[in-house]
């Protein structure tokens, strides 16, 4: 396994979830794989869950871990060719990335959408330069368009908590004060399309996700109809794709409260975290017994560990 | 041992000091305890000694260590319920803390007094939420009202350097340009009250520490009288408790210089560090052979290691 | 080996390079040396290569590593005696350094030239206080006047890529938008003078390096003449030594492009990185097969590992 950027990279989802749950039972059983192997985690953006859970996953496998905050510990990086570098960027990504590749066996990279230019974000310029130039397996720790470690952990969590073979899973938009990337919902759509679930996406008009993700996915603009019969409610805010990076609504009638949850089939509540309480979801819902956000976060270790283990096996 | 916040948590002080000195002799003898165990150190405030010494203690015990600077590496955290989170805090402590608890076996937390509100600080809101919500043993790396790893290291240092069974220990206020929390003096008082020492506190009027710490403790407002016969001088600045967080005096006649030390019984000089030279203590005193501030800092490893070892044993 | 600050500290260069290349073949063969040993890496200035490569080297040897960013994770440090510390520096280096020494077995320090005062920089005040006060072996991770781990890696790289017994090595100044320290060129001069190479330095008038480094070294002000017959071109910018810290020229006729490289004996191109493209060197040259900057960066692990190994052997 040479890269983990999207759902296709993990292969059969049932096998992947099974492997993750097996690692959850025996997290320290594969430490021979990581001996004298090093993972470098590069953060262009800040992180709590991803930083700690990926570090933990790598340590569970016996690896050494180095964390680097680019733009803070290190340098700002130029990524264009032909630039006379007389400004604030002292290093080119075409040197920085292969150098980092010399110091490790696996690289994890977090680089969010910048919302300056849709084409730049959706072409995954930063991530692709790591793949092209590092010479090492690359794990996305959330890129401009996807957050696959999160979606994999979401799927593991659904598998653990489902009470029927084919549960109904609803991704619902919810309001937020800031413009947030589409990485988490894009990725969740991608994974749910490939999972054995009934999947519905609901959001106000104008919040349609990118067509390349949504092909064949059911969209229900009426949030109540979407919630009916749901076994899992997955809430998330995102900014508009069509009016790229814009906030079109802060309509708090979309906030997931007890009344919304009453429309469902006693659904579990999920969110990738961090979550803005009383914007995305009320205190009451997120603290209810049906909220599984902490279990979901806990599974971030095992989605990461499955991916890293497969990479170690292929080195 | 499920928490280490105050002197009561360590139990018998003689036994604790003995165990620490034994670990100092054989720091690597208990690495089986920490194998595949992880400690997360959370810093809401910056740190040099605590960060390095606690990390070292955990590594001596064979643990994995992850360090997280909240407000910098991570996010600002909301701690109130019922808040519509549409401001600058993207995450609630009621999610962040249980999530961190999923990624480790022991949590260390540093969270200083904010000096905005005495009741908030003295109720230890942040630390108590870690205890309530993390599901894991919690070590204070200095809280709003106490710094128990420091006081434990101080006690070890006194035990190593005392030349009589029951030495006289004096805690003296000294001037400082900034308003400093009462955590170190509160904690030192709490530990000395429980130790086999003659204990006196001296400070200008208006600098009385919180009554719940000072019950039964001798206060001598005349610094010279307090110093007479002292075997250990423990200097520290703190801001006023009664006029909460205020600087009432920068009187440099309280600075510990050679003349002050001449009043004592050839006392050792102690300070938790960092120390403002020529405000708290003169260059001459802190560089004298009677200064044991470096030995005191070195013992931070073994106070931390004793606490972490006991927690590992109880997991 | 108690310190590594300059070329004299490593002893015989041929033996050192041979040891480094042997470690490159078997990086994990000496992990018994580092067991239960800790290195602390202190950065007063930011770092990518040095941080990651030194950490990797220490982990290859089985050590524990702690990284501390002073001025950021920790505190600003006072370094003068007699100062009444009532300003923005809460700690004196005469406490901080011996305390850090208590928590580790080896210390690495990065502290750049400040360009405020030539005498201060060239007296290596910060580094020398670590040597004087820490009580532990000290490795320069780039000081005000030298970058010996870089120069050692450069020498290893030349040894690997040379095609004749005594290659011609040219250090050339090149333009840059900011005032850069002389540490890398000083150090490179120092190592090349002691290596079995024909060595020439070329730069515009006014960019003469400090006399104590340049004694006996050939300077050729005509860049073309210097490049003729060169087997290795080592490009680097530096600010003026005589007009200390000033930028006297940004003359891009000194930028190393294909035409410059055509003057050489099919020379390899070297640079310590980070490099400003199209200021120091063109995209074309740095991406050409003759560019060995990535291999050079990779050797940073093995220069560091050789030094740390020798220090561990002498503890």
UniProtKB/TrEMBL annotation, chains A, B, C:
Gene3D superfamilies assigned: Aspartate/ornithine carbamoyltransferase
Transmembrane segments: none
GO biological process, one term: citrulline biosynthetic process
GO MF annotation list: amino acid binding; ornithine carbamoyltransferase activity
Binding, N(2)-succinyl-L-ornithine: 142, 176, 236, 276
Pfam families on file: OTCace, OTCace_N
Pathway: Amino-acid biosynthesis; L-arginine biosynthesis
Reaction(s) catalysed by this chain's protein: N(2)-succinyl-L-ornithine + carbamoyl phosphate = N(2)-succinyl-L-citrulline + phosphate + H(+)
UniProt KW keywords: Amino-acid biosynthesis, Arginine biosynthesis, Transferase
Residue span, Aspartate/ornithine carbamoyltransferase carbamoyl-P binding domain: 3-160
Residues annotated to bind carbamoyl phosphate: 47-50, 75, 110, 147-150, 272-273, 300
UniProt xrefs under NCBIfam families: PRK04523.1 (NF003384)
Family to which this protein belongs: Belongs to the aspartate/ornithine carbamoyltransferase superfamily. SOTCase family.
HAMAP family: SOTCase
Record text on subunit structure and interactions: Homotrimer.
Protein name: N-succinylornithine carbamoyltransferase
Organism of derivation: Breznakibacter xylanolyticus
């Amino acid at each position: 396994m040479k890269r983990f950027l999207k759902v296709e990279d993990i292969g059969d989802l049932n096998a992947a979830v099974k492997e993750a749950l097996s690692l959850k039972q025996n997290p320290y059983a594969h430490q021979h794989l990581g001996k004298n192997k090093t993972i470098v985690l590069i953060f262009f953006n800040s992180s709590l869950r991803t930083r700690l859970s990926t570090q933990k996953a790598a340590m569970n496998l016996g690896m050494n871990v180095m964390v680097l905050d680019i733009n803070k510990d290190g340098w700002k990086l130029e990524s264009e060719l032909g630039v006379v570098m007389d400004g604030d960027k002292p290093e080119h990504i075409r040197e920085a990335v292969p150098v980092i590749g010399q110091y490790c066996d696996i690289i994890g990279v977090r680089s969010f959408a910048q919302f300056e230019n849709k084409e730049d974000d959706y072409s995954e310029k930063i991530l692709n330069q790591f793949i092209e130039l590092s010479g090492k397996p690359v794990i996305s720790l959330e890129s401009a368009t996807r957050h696959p470690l999160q979606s994999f952990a979401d799927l593991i969590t659904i598998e653990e908590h489902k009470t029927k073979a084919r549960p109904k899973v609803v991704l619902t938009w919810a309001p937020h004060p800031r413009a947030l990337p589409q990485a988490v919902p894009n990725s969740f759509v991608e994974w749910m399309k490939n999972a054995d679930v009934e999947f519905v996406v609901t959001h106000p008009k104008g919040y349609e996700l990118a067509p390349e993700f949504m092909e064949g996915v059911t969209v229900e603009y009426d949030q109540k109809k979407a919630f009916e019969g749901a076994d899992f409610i997955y809430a998330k805010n995102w900014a508009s794709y069509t009016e790229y990076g814009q906030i079109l609504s802060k309509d708090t009638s979309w906030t997931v409260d007890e009344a919304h949850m009453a429309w469902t089939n006693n659904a579990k509540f999920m969110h990738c975290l961090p979550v803005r309480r009383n914007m995305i979801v009320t205190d009451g819902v997120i603290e209810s017994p049906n909220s599984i956000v902490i279990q979901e976060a806990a599974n971030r270790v095992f989605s990461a560990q499955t991916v890293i283990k497969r990479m170690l096996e292929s080195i």
